[in-house]
Design brief:
alpha/beta; D-Maltodextrin-Binding Protein, domain 2; 2 domains; 14 helices; 12 strands; 17% strand; globular; disordered N terminus
């Protein structure tokens, strides 16, 4: 079983993110292949902690021939910028949510974000490691992007607010809430009666601080890593959507890497993904205490009332039509019938 990284260990481990060039040379030759990896979350997030460890292991197991350089926290630009760079070859690797900007290129990739579709992690991983995930990887590949086998965990999302707790759908009526740049997120919160605004993640803290928006929605690990608890008061455990990151690679750059190095890197990165999943699940559960101690007031909700609201608003009917029967059928094969 992979070792679980404690929250105290995140800061120390994250200190190594992005500092490869400053370390003394360990190999007798420069790397033959150097790939940049862009992510949109802080260096202390488990995603970057595990990517940093994987990068060290890839370099070691390839005797320095293959080097991965990690750039967290939107250092290489917003998500849309990084996707554009990935497609043009300016960026070799990018971890992005299928529900986020990737869905602007591959609409079916956003199906993993259907509101209140997954009730727990077992049903989620059954879908994403099974037929639905295989189908989505095929769609990404057909768009000319290499995608690794395992999708990294961002966790189930909750709603935070500076105004009031969200206990039932009516509490969202007219609420100015930040959502990622994604049609799925906009559709979900409009159907729930809110007034969603799409902003890139790099803008979230300042938008909350200046009251451009009253609330936002993210998993606990991101709320902690980005210190959103400093500008929010309430945290409502809606678990309304799951979100994760596909490991995307520029096809031309990957094609220049020898097969044996590809296999080594893919094996290490997929194993790191599985360790990250475990850490995120454990940390998200434990962070409720930490975030409460930081001042957030938590409340649980009855998901059934929110699902009923979405059904009445035609949310599921609309997205079934958009995705088509084949894609929607793969989702319902795991989660059951969605109205």
């Amino acid at each position: 079983m992979p070792k679980v990284i404690t929250r105290r260990g995140f800061a120390a481990l994250a200190g190594g993110v992005g500092v490869t060039a400053a370390m003394p040379p360990r190999y007798a030759h420069a790397a033959e292949f150097t790939f940049k990896i862009g992510t949109n979350v802080p260096a202390s997030h488990p995603l970057n902690v595990h990517l940093s460890r994987a990068a060290e292991q890839v370099k070691a197991e390839t005797d320095g021939r293959f080097e991965l350089r990690l750039f967290p926290a939107n250092q290489l630009g917003a998500d849309a910028d990084m996707l554009s760079q990935l497609r043009s070859g300016g960026l070799e690797c990018f971890l992005n949510s299928g529900v986020n900007v990737l869905s602007t290129l591959i609409p079916s990739a956003s199906i993993s974000g259907v509101g209140f579709a997954f009730k727990d992690y077992p049903s989620l991983w059954s879908a994403m490691d099974g037929k639905l995930g295989a189908y989505l990887r095929g769609q990404i590949s057909r768009a000319g992007i290499v995608v690794l086998d395992k999708v990294w965990d961002n966790g189930f999302r909750l709603i935070t607010s500076s105004v009031k707790p969200i206990s039932q759908p009516d509490d969202l009526r007219g609420m100015k809430i930040r959502v990622p740049v994604s049609a799925m997120w906009l559709s979900l919160f409009r159907a729930l009666g809110a007034a969603p605004t799409s902003l890139n993640f790099a803008e979230v803290y300042s938008a909350l601080q200046t009251k451009v928006v009253d609330g936002q929605e993210n998993p606990p690990a991101i709320i902690q890593a980005a210190k959103l608890y400093e500008v929010q008061k309430y945290a409502s455990v809606t678990n309304h959507m799951w979100d994760g990151w596909w490991f995307l690679i520029n096809r031309r750059a990957w094609g220049r890497v020898p097969t044996n190095l590809q296999e080594t890197a893919a094996r290490i990165l997929n194993a790191a993904c599985m360790a990250e999943r475990e850490d995120v699940a454990r940390q998200n559960a434990a962070l409720r205490t930490d975030l409460s101690n930081a001042g957030l007031i938590f409340n649980d909700v009855d998901q059934g009332t929110f699902r009923e609201k979405l059904t009445a608003a035609g949310f599921y009917r609309e997205w079934r039509s958009k995705f088509g029967e084949e894609t929607w059928g793969l989702l319902e094969e795991t989660v059951g019938t969605l109205a």
